[in-house]
Specification:
Elements (H helix, E strand, L loop, with lengths): L1 E5 L4 E6 L4 E6 L6 E7 L9 H8 L9 E3 L5 E8 L13 H7 L8 H9 L13 E3 L2 E4 L5 E4 L8 E6 L3 E7 L15 E6 L1
Antiparallel strand pairs: 1-12, 2-11, 3-10, 3-12, 4-7, 4-11, 5-6, 6-10, 8-9
Length: 195
């Protein structure tokens, strides 16, 4: 087992081999984690929110559901989940949103953080897919608005994924302290790679 701690507002990238398990833990509670993945051997194959929604016929996925690639292959299967609330509708938070929508000035979001840690693997920021937003609590209101709520996870809650192919993954401890997403305070995310 390999254990890593992502400090608040940081990201890391890892190689996960087929059959390995990946556990992502909310260490302190109410903290979202953006997750993206690519085939280790062909970076053109990557996680797809849209195909994941269609294959699971849901905008919420949990234990037993698969994370599907843009080529309709299962990249990961969720094997354990203590929360059951995750988002597959939003993009990563990013500098444009902070500057032009939230009006808090340019700053790094999950997009910039993930782009930085995936660059050594020759993955361009232009190729970054919309993420699997772990622990992120969103809902669609009756009027069609997307509402972002505080992450539903408490201290020690986790999701465990089984790799169905060799993958490069990026995980970001979301730096959003503007919306209710992280309860107004960004904290740590744990990442464990289990053989």
């Amino acid at each position: 087992m390999t254990t890593h701690t992502l400090e608040p507002k940081t990201a890391k990238a890892f190689i996960i081999k087929k059959g390995q398990h990946l556990r992502i833990t909310d260490i302190d509670g109410q903290q979202a984690a953006d997750f993206v993945c690519f085939s280790e051997h062909d970076h053109g194959e990557r996680f797809s929110q849209a195909k994941t929604r269609v294959r699971n016929l849901n905008i919420q996925i949990s234990t037993g559901n698969g994370l599907i690639s843009n080529r309709d292959n299962t990249m990961f299967t969720i094997v354990d989940d203590t929360v059951g609330v995750h988002d597959i509708m939003l993009s990563e938070c990013h500098s444009y949103v902070y500057e032009h929508i939230f009006k808090v000035g340019p700053r790094n979001g999950c997009y910039e953080n993930l782009s930085h840690v995936l660059a050594p693997y020759d993955i361009s920021s232009d190729d970054l897919p919309d993420p699997f937003d772990i622990f992120t609590d969103t809902e669609v209101t009756d009027s069609g608005d997307i509402q972002i709520n505080t992450a539903a996870s408490g201290p020690g809650d986790y999701i465990e994924l089984r790799a169905e192919m060799d993958c490069i993954i990026g995980v970001s401890a979301c730096p959003d302290d503007v919306t209710p997403c992280n309860g107004g305070k960004c904290t740590r995310i744990g990442v464990e790679i289990l053989n």
